[in-house]
Amino acid sequence: QKELVESGGGLVQPGGSLTLSCTASGFTLDYYAVGWFRQAPGKEREGVSCISSTGGVTNHADSVKGRFTISKDNAKNTVYLQMNNLKPEDTAVYFCAVQASGLLRICQIAAANGYTDWGQGAQVTVSS
Q1: Is 29 helix (H, G, I), strand (E, B) or coil?
Q2: pLDDT for the residue numbered 104
Q3: Which of 5, 6, 9, 7 is nearest to 126 (CA)?
């Protein structure tokens, strides 16, 4: 049974940093692109960042470019989202998800419905 578990969320002051982890169990991430999405209250889910199966390709939403970094440790079957210089508008529930991609050097965050398995979400609150 495939499972994704997010961790590392919490409360942080504006300008602070957090690192989210997405750990997979029941399958290997070696052949999956992984995306991070977020949903704030009253807003639609939006793509944040993604990384290809081999880790060689990443994409970020314009709103987080230069502040967020995504990385992948296949040995630990885990993807990380390093979030720096956090802003109140980053407050949301963050979800990781996987999309089967083989060894293709691709990932996308434009279409959440392309992702087949999702974690339960981690709350990130940026507030003073």
Answers
A1: helix
A2: 85
A3: 9
